[in-house]
Structure prediction request, 212 residues.
Amino acid sequence: MIGYLSGVFLGADEGSSVLLDVNGVGYSVLVSSRAVSGIAIGAPFKLFIHTNLRENALELFGFSSVWEKRVFLALTSVSGVGPRTAISVLGNLDGETILAAIVREDRVTLTSASGIGKKTAERLIVELGEKARKLLSERPNKGAATSAPVAALSDAKKSSAKASANIPAQGASSKDMSGLDVADLWNEALAALLNLGYRDAEAIAAIKIASA
Prediction:
């Protein structure tokens, strides 16, 4: 099992694959366009690897971080999302945006990615909701979350109007205009409501109402 490959970036191979020279051996690795963005030919390069064995082929999929690989594996755990579709989705949308869209039940964002139709988007939302929240909380280099939405949503049982102040609208980008991290806002909002005794589905519904 190959955990990662570290070598010299040789540029594009066939399709969405790139070539990586590791001590004189050239590996062809399928990657998202984001994973190789800004990498110059001849530069040192490291990819975390997932090996996919098919009946007639062995494919290597590469990722810029272990966390991105975990997002990829989460996507491929859903029926109808193969590894090539998942790597394509990660090229269209970064992992944080994908997971936040799943948590928000944002079908518009999910279906904007190549290979994700309405039915697949529904399966992602139903099957990956809890896992998406966990992965978001564990992502590397996440910005410090503001305490404002937590304070607002802690009073949600008293007034849902207060909760709407700092919660971004459904379909918002990964960062809103004020620079607040949408994923962190949703994560903290969910945690606050769950601590108040809301069930998971009720908490999500309350945040969606406050976001309207």
In short: The mean pLDDT is 79. The first strand starts at residue 4 and ends at 12.
